[in-house]
C-alpha cells in the first residue's frame, strides 16, 4: 500500500555570510585552529555558493567528527619536504584536505611567479572537498590552475566488476579578464554517488550507462547500484583512463594510498589518518605570451562558444557559466539547506552554543 | 538491385622496418629535410605499430601534399621565442606537427631535468598526429608526459548544434619500471570521425550518443551524421569541458587559432600554413619522491588494476595494454595496409622511384 506523499516544506535558506560565520564558529569550537577553519569554510562555501551542494556545508558535520576523532589534525604542521626547481612535495601532516590543498596551490602559485609553472604533490592529506575551489584560487591570481585528487573507491573500471577508482575529480580553471574564471570541475565517473542516493530517495530510475550491479553489469535501478560507471558509457575506458591519471598524480607521485586502499570516508574509524595524496599545478600564461594576447584569445574563444548554435530549446554554456549564475542567485537569496544538514546544524549549534544561520 | 558482395582480398601487410624506410624515402624525395622526415615517420609509425591506424602511415600521402603545397615547411626553422624558468614558447615555423611536438617535448624534458617540470607551448605548427607519441617520449626518459592539441572542428558542444571543437586529444604517459609505459591517448569526443566513415562503409548504425544531425539532435545514421558528440553522452558537458581545456592550452596559450578558425586539414588550400598551437608538459617523478617509491607505487597500482574483477566474459586492462599487445603482433606479423593507402603508396612509389613496402 502506498502512503500518500506528504508535501515537503520549503527548505530553510541561509544567507552566505551567516552560513560562513556558523561553520567557522563550529569548527573552532570543535578544536580546529584558525587556518583549518578558514580553509574548510572557504572550500565548503565554494560548493554552497556555486550550487555544488555535495561539497558544500553539508560536510560540516562530517568534518567535526573527523576533527574530534583525530583523523584530521586540528592544529596540523604542514611542511615542504622536498623542493626542486618549480616543484615541491608538501607533507600536510594529516591536515584538513582544504588547508592542504590551498597551501599547496599557494606554493604552486609562488613557483609559477618565479618559474612560469609550479607543481606541488601533497602527502598525508584528507578529504579533498571541491577540487574547483583550489583551481579557482589560481585563476583569481592570473594563472591557470589544475587540482586533482583520488578518493574512496566507488567506480568500476571499464569492463570491471568491482569498485576500483574514486570519482577522482579533475578541476581546471582559466582566468578570464574582467569576468569570473572559466571553470571545469568534473568527476571522472559518469555521475557521483550522491546522484544515486537522490534517485533512491525519489524512486526514479537512473540514466543508462552510469551504474552497475555487483557483477559489473549495467543497472538503472538505484537500489541495485553497487558501483558507478566511469565517464563515457561504451567508451568508459576514457573515463577510467582519466581516473587513472588522477590516481597516479595524486597517490603515486605522493607515495600515498590508491583509492581502493583508503580508509572509508564514512568510518567507522574516525581516528586513523587516511594518508591521502593530491596534486595541484599552476601555469602562468604571461610566461608564454603577452597578457593581452592571452586575454584576447580567451575572450574570442568564449564569445564564439557562447554565440554558437544550440539544439532546439537548449542553451550553450561555457564551463562555470551555470555555477556563476547560481552563485549570483544564492548571494542574493541565500543557500538552501537540506533537511539532514538542517538537523545536524541544530544539533551542532546546541552542542557548541552557536546560533544556527536560519530562523 | 543489390550487387552480390565481392569477397575482399586480404589486405597486404608491410613489415615495420620496410614501412619506415618507404615513408622516410618518400618524404625526403618530396623535399622534406632529414629532421622532418625522421619526426613524421616516428609519429606515423607510433600509430601504425600500436594499431592507431587513423594516425598511422595512411597520413603519408596527406603529408606529401602538404609539403609540396607549402602548407608544411619542408626545411623549417624552429626557435624558442620565450623562455621563463621551467616554461618556453616554441615557434615551429610551420614545421610538420610531429617535428614541432617532438622538439617541444625534448625541450620540456630538458626543463624537467633542471626544474622537475617543464612546459612548452607550440606556435605555428601543423597537423599533430598521434598525441600519444609525444607523451611516450617523456615516459621513455623517466618522466610523465602530457601532450594536447586542438584540431579541425568536428565536435558539437554539449547542447550545441554546430561543429565547434576538434576531437582535441589528451595523451598522458607514465613510466613503468621494467615495462612499457602506462599510456592514455584519447579523443575528447566520444568517437573519431574515422569511425563514422567506417560505419558508412559497412552500412551499420552508430552507437547512441556519439553523433548528431545538422540541428544537433542525436542520430545513429552514419549518413546523417553531421557532427560528433563530446565524450559523455548525457554528461557531454564533461567531454566538451575537456575539449575546452585542450583548446585553451593549445590555442590561447600559444596565441594561435581555435578549432573553428583552422583551415580544413583536407584542403583545398594546401599552400597556406594552418597556424595551429599545441602544448606539452613533462613531470619528473624523482623531483617529488624517491625513484623506488614511485616505481613501487605504480607497480602496486597496476597489479591491483590488472588483478581486479572483470564483468562476465570481459578483461580489465590498463591504458596502453591493448596497444602494446597489438604492437607485439605487428612487429612480428607486419602492419595491415588498407586499400586506399595501398593505392597511394603505389602511386607515390612510382612518382618518387621508391619500391612500396609490400609485394
From TrEMBL, chains A, B:
Belongs to the LDH2/MDH2 oxidoreductase family. This is Ldh family oxidoreductase. Keywords: Oxidoreductase. Pfam families: Ldh_2. GO terms for molecular function: oxidoreductase activity. InterPro entries: Mal/L-sulf/L-lact_DH-like_ah, Mal/L-sulf/L-lact_DH-like_NADP, Mal/L-sulfo/L-lacto_DH-like_sf, Malate/L-lactate_DH-like. It comes from Oricola thermophila.
Amino acid at each position: 500500500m502506498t502512503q500518500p506523499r506528504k508535501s515537503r516544506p520549503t527548505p530553510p535558506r541561509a544567507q552566505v555570510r551567516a552560513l560562513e560565520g556558523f561553520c567557522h564558529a563550529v569548527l573552532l569550537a570543535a578544536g580546529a585552529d584558525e587556518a583549518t577553519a578558514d580553509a574548510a569554510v572557504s572550500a565548503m562555501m565554494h560548493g554552497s555558493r556555486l550550487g555544488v551542494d555535495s561539497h558544500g556545508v553539508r560536510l560540516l558535520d562530517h568534518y567535526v567528527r573527523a576533527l574530534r576523532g583525530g583523523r584530521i589534525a586540528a592544529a596540523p604542521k604542514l611542511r615542504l619536504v622536498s623542493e626542486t626547481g618549480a616543484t615541491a612535495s608538501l607533507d600536510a601532516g594529516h591536515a584538513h584536505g582544504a588547508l592542504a590543498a590551498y597551501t599547496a596551490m599557494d606554493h604552486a602559485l609562488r613557483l609559477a611567479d618565479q618559474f612560469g609553472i609550479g607543481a606541488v604533490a601533497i602527502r598525508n592529506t584528507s578529504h579533498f572537498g571541491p577540487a574547483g575551489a583550489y583551481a579557482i584560487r589560481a585563476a583569481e591570481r592570473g594563472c591557470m590552475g589544475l587540482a586533482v585528487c583520488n578518493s574512496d573507491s566507488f567506480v568500476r573500471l571499464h569492463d570491471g566488476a568491482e569498485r576500483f577508482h574514486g570519482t577522482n575529480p579533475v578541476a581546471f580553471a582559466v582566468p578570464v579578464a574582467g569576468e569570473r574564471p572559466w571553470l571545469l570541475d568534473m568527476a571522472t565517473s559518469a555521475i557521483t554517488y550522491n546522484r544515486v542516493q537522490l534517485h533512491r530517495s525519489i524512486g526514479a530510475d537512473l540514466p543508462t550507462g552510469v551504474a552497475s550491479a555487483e557483477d559489473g553489469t549495467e543497472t538503472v535501478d538505484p537500489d541495485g547500484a553497487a558501483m558507478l560507471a566511469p565517464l563515457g558509457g561504451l567508451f568508459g575506458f576514457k573515463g577510467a583512463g582519466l581516473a587513472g591519471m588522477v590516481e597516479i598524480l595524486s597517490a603515486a607521485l605522493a607515495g600515498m594510498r590508491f583509492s581502493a586502499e583508503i580508509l572509508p570516508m564514512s568510518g567507522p574509524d574516525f581516528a586513523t589518518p587516511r594518508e591521502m595524496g593530491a596534486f595541484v599545478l599552476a601555469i602562468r600564461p604571461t610566461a608564454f605570451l603577452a597578457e593581452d594576447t592571452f586575454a584576447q584569445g580567451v575572450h574570442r574563444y568564449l564569445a564564439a562558444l557562447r554565440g554558437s548554435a544550440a539544439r532546439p530549446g537548449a542553451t550553450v554554456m561555457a564551463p562555470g557559466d551555470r555555477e556563476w549564475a547560481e552563485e549570483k542567485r544564492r548571494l542574493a537569496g541565500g543557500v538552501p539547506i537540506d533537511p539532514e544538514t538542517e538537523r545536524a546544524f541544530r544539533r551542532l549549534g546546541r552542542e557548541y552554543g552557536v546560533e544556527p544561520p536560519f530562523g
